[in-house]
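Hi all, long-time lurker, first post. I run a small reading group and we've been trying to get comfortable going from sequence to structure in the token notation. Rather than ask abstract questions, I figured I'd post a concrete chain and ask someone more experienced to write out its structure so we can walk through it together at our next meeting. Sequence below, copied exactly:
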Amino acid sequence: MAVSNIEFRVETKDANAKIRSLQTQVQKLEIAVQKAGGSTKTAGAGFKVFSSGAQAASVGVRGLGAALSAALGPLTAVVAAAASLSQAFDVLSKQDFAEAKVRSLGVNSDELKQRLVGVSAELSGQASVLGLTSAAYDVASAGFTNAADAANILKAASQGATGGFSDINTVGDAATSVLNAYGLQADQAARLVDGFIQTQNDGKIVIGEYANNIAKVAPVAAALGVPLEQVNAAVAQITAGGQGAEVTFTSLKTALSAIAAGNVDKVFSELGVKIDSSTIASDGLVGTLEKIKSTGADAGQIIKAFGTEAGPSILALLNDTEKYNKLLESQVNAQGAAARAAFEA
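-- Answer (accepted) --
Happy to help. Here is the structure in token form:
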């Protein structure tokens, strides 16, 4: 590594002369005061001479300052350029490391980088190539090692993160969790993230809370054949009513598990309807709610069927099924929600 030395010299001949003159005048002042024996007239004259010398020296010092400024100007530019270059090398180093990480999972890093350059441009720089590449490791870890698939998911996750005031890794993790739970392909990621954002728009929840909890419900809902849109509509309605996001997701998981286990059917079979894993697959959550409502079951019977943890959430949905249907319609028509939210943000 080559090292360059920068040498500069400041000529201070004039300033030095002024300073020497000042020293001479000070010495004269001391002698004058001593000879005067306290004579203010002689001392005053000496101070005048001192003042004149000090002013002359001041001019020289100002000249020295200007000379230093002129000499240091190029050096300051060199230091600034070196700092910028250091930052650039730091970015390149991190990019190389991010690419090495995804290669360890079998991803074609060259193709991925090329695609992510395009994604970053499409997003108008909302996400850098480095940020996208770094997030690609988690996406690839979830099984999406194809460069095109990873790029699709990362683009959707970036829009969701910007529009939902979250980060790309959090939204990307939620997207891959749901894709895997429902057995969907990567090209469905945008539609899923649109649903995430729509849930945020309709409920009292932010996408970070949604992303951190959806993995609790998605596997059970997918196993029972309940579409994600119906889960999202329920989350929006329940959280809008004031229940916290974490409690909402846990209660929905418990409710669906109770149906799968046959606990719900034990109660409602006595009321003339059948509700189990086979019926919810055909009726969906929306149809199941209508079926429960038709029985005229009271709060006690609902709590008995779904348990004390899930019962209150089911009651919240049953109390306004019309609202639930409207929220479900919003989910169905949510296409473009993430892009719009990202644009606004």
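A couple of things your group might point at:
The two ends are 45 Å apart (CA to CA).
The chain has a mean pLDDT of 85.
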